[in-house]
Amino acid sequence: MAEELGVVKYDITNAAIKQMENEYMVLTVQGLDDEAGFKMVHEARMVVKNHRVAVEKKRVNLKAGALEYGRKVDSEAKRIIGLLEPIEAHLQTEEDKVTKEKERIRTQKILKEQERVAGIRAKIEGLRQLATIKPTMTAAAITSRMDNVADIIIDDETFMEFKEEAETIRNETWNKLRQLEKDRSEWEEEQAKAKAEAERLEKVRKEQEAEAAKLKIAHDKIDAEKAALEAEKAAEAQNKRQAEFEKQALENARIAAEKNAAEKILREAREAEEKARAEAAERSRKAALAPDKDKILTWAKELNGYLLETHPDFSSDEAKRILFDAEKAIDKAVSTAVKNAKEL
User: Fold this and answer.
1) For every residue of 93-122, which 3-state class applies, written as one string?
2) How far is the C-alpha of 144 from the C-alpha of 138, rounded, in Å?
3) Domains of the chain: which residue ranges?
4) How far is Cα 29 from Cα 96, in angstroms, rounded to an integer?
5) Confidence class of residue 3 from pLDDT cuts 50, 70 and 90?
6) pLDDT in tens, 275-323
7) 4 pLDDT more than 60
8) pLDDT tens-place string over residues 15-33
9) CA dist 132 → 58, 137, 180, 186 (Å)
């Protein structure tokens, strides 16, 4: 195999490579609009690439004969490729100026389109979110929001190809708000009725409490009157016991006679008191609208007047003392009644 032992030759010469270097290394692309320059660079790169690929293929074929020949083949191929690669790299760089810039522009357009769509989607989502309300939102506020939604303009410039979807979402939002406004109005009406009923019940409760208070005052007055009468009776009983004790202690017939007279006075006083009470009761019946306080004071005044008008004359000090004690007891009972009446 003379070719295996001789100089390894490929289908391209140094002169051809030099010519490609001279022709292709000066090629450049002047921008995205330089289509002719891009085409020349691309075609030149493909020529260089095809030579490189052909050399690589032949290297593989030639190397298959023998290891030594293969090393020669590799060495020569490496040398040739080393000469071709700077040319190809230059041309690839020039070609990349366009391809990479186009890719950047394409990516930028995609991102810009995504941002545009995302912006419109955000507007549509904003329309949808208008149907979400706070639990404390009133029916009037919901109505105001409905008006705002109705005033939103869905135009081609803002929503572009999503205009129909935006109109659908706006209408759905308005319908949801209308239902929410209806529900809220019914709820507010129920709350107003419940509040009115609660206020009515509270008014009734206060009226009942006021009536109960009036009844208590009336009962307290009755109790006070009963207490005054019991006190009066107790005083009379005490006076009676005192009179009886003094009667037993007296041995003198004159004193006994005067004591009997004093007892007669007490009886007459009680009779007068009972009469006065009956008259007072009659007056009370006739003057039912007069306050109980005035009734008691009138009764006390009339009783004192009666006692002054029926005051008997006695010659003995003992009889005068008995009369004095009786008047004192009566006066005390009357004073107690007057005092209690003034506290009403």
Assistant:
1) HHHHHHHHHHHHHHHHHHHHHHHHHHHHHH
2) 10
3) 2-115, 127-203, 213-342
4) 9
5) very low
6) 878 877 777 666 654 567 777 777 777 777 666 666 667 677 787 788 7
7) no
8) 999 999 999 999 999 988 8
9) 74, 10, 9, 18
Q: What pLDDT is stored for residue 118 in this prediction?
A: 93
pTM: 0.37
User: If residue 258 lies in a helix (H) or strand (E), which one and from where to where?
Assistant: helix 253-286
Work out the angle at residue 133's Cα, subtended by the Cα atoms of residues 132 and 138, and round it to the nearest 5 degrees: 150
Nearest to 66 by CA among 6, 108, 115: 6
Q: Tell me how far the alpha carbon of residue 283 is from its chain's centroid.
A: 65
Task: Tell which residue, 160, 159, 25, has the closest CA to residue 94.
Answer: 25
Q: Which two tokens stand for residue 303?
A: 């009783």
Between vectors from CA 303 to CA 300 and to CA 305, what angle results, nearest 5°? 110
Rounded to the nearest angstrom, the gap between the alpha carbon of residue 9 and the centroid of all alpha carbons in its chain is 92
Amino acid at 83: L
Helices (H), the chain: 2-5, 14-24, 35-63, 67-129, 139-151, 156-159, 163-249, 253-286, 292-309, 317-342
Task: Quick: pLDDT tens for 36-66.
Answer: 999 999 999 999 999 999 998 888 887 766 6
- What tokens were used for 235? 């005083």
Whether residue 191 is predicted with pLDDT greater than 70 in this model: the reply is yes
> What is residue 334's predicted lDDT score, i.e. its pLDDT?
78
**154 phi/psi in degrees, rounded to 5:** -100, 100
Q: Are 111 and 64 in contact (CB under 8 A)?
A: no
